[in-house]
Please model this.
Amino acid sequence: MDLDLDGDVALVTGSATGLGHACAEAFSRQGANVALASPNLGDLAYASDRLHALGDGEILGLEVDVRDRGGVEAFVAETVEQYGGIDHLVTGPRPLESERFLDVDDEDWFRGFDRLFMSVVWTIRESYPHLEASGGGTVVNVTNPVVRALGGEFSVTNSFGRAVQGVTETQARSFAPEVRVNSVLPGPHDTDDLELFLTELVDGGVYADLDAAWSALLRDSPYETPGDPLDLGKLVAFLSSEHASFLNGAAIPVDGGAGT
Model:
């Protein structure tokens, strides 16, 4: 489906790996120019090269730690300098971490606040003037994957994920109609990030092997396999297009029905 995104500019955080990268790929395949951000130069180089080979749009890869406000400001500024503006913003999910509430100290709460919540606030705030000026600006916040089936406590992740949803709902009202704001709530998807998380659980003795970990993760799902990350990316690209021009303030689960 042609989403009429050819030549648009999409800024995607958390975009070197996982679901964030799948979103960047979906935009690139539609001919959009994409700005990638990652604190890891190796991941960033691989992601940039991959999208150059797969997509039609230009790729700008920048080393950015989204926990640093100055780094976010520089990322937005360099994207605008390179492409002349920003039409679409996607805030990607961060790596999963399982933490019991009573084991999380103040430092971890503050670190999670910057990484999971303030990074979204800073990116939206810095991008907003350019999104407003684009004439069809959009924001899609991709929250962390829903992993209820594992039974662990994701205290920091869940807390700030809900806070991001609050930002989505609030800004959808105050930014519209110039800028639309929606969110996507992913379930388990077949990403290296999620497999790494499951591998850590196996190494910690929680599950006997990866097959057992995947089975536990999918036990509440009517599907036997996890989702395709690119399918989620295509949804994000659709939400950013004029084909979804009356979708605003929506929170769309992409979990195969596991959360229903």
Remarks:
- The chain has a mean pLDDT of 90.
